[in-house]
């Protein structure tokens, strides 16, 4: 990787809003991760103490894992932290790179829209079902999932528009690293 050129940073009011949302989602993800750590630690400690165990710790830890996974999905798309094949990024023809990145992001938008529809269906139909221990309505459990997939969809749409207007996001490669293209 070449460290001579600084990474592209997008500007504008839309990207300022995205950066604020990123900070909020990272905080939510960090809180969920901390909750998982504390709850799993509590479960482990309960095995070696004579105190009565708390059945709700396992259930809440599972919910926190779901919330962590879905709360940072959108962040991964806009920070290019998601799993991606970047072989096309090394092509010399930047128009091909732009088209491929745009198509990939449009596919993410389409899948995200389907996930939003399904998450909305879960939120609106699962209120009658309660979690076994906490008796929490399952529709409450699915609200962070809905927010996460909505964030993913919106961020992927913004990123697709950005690639169309401003060109592709390129990975930094040295010439010796690029053998294809």
From TrEMBL:
Q: Kindly give the Pfam families that the UniProt entry links to this protein.
A: DctQ (PF04290)
Chain segments annotated as transmembrane: 20-44, 64-83, 95-121, 141-165
Enumerate the subcellular locations listed in this protein's record, separating them with semicolons.
Answer: Cell inner membrane
Record-linked InterPro entries? DctQ (IPR055348), TRAP_DctQ (IPR007387)
Organismal lineage = Bacteria, Bacillati, Actinomycetota, Actinomycetes, Micrococcales
Which terms in the Gene Ontology molecular function aspect does this entry carry? transmembrane transporter activity
Q: What is this protein called?
A: TRAP-type C4-dicarboxylate transport system permease small subunit
Q: Which species is this record about? A: Homoserinimonas aerilata
- Taxonomy, superkingdom: Bacteria
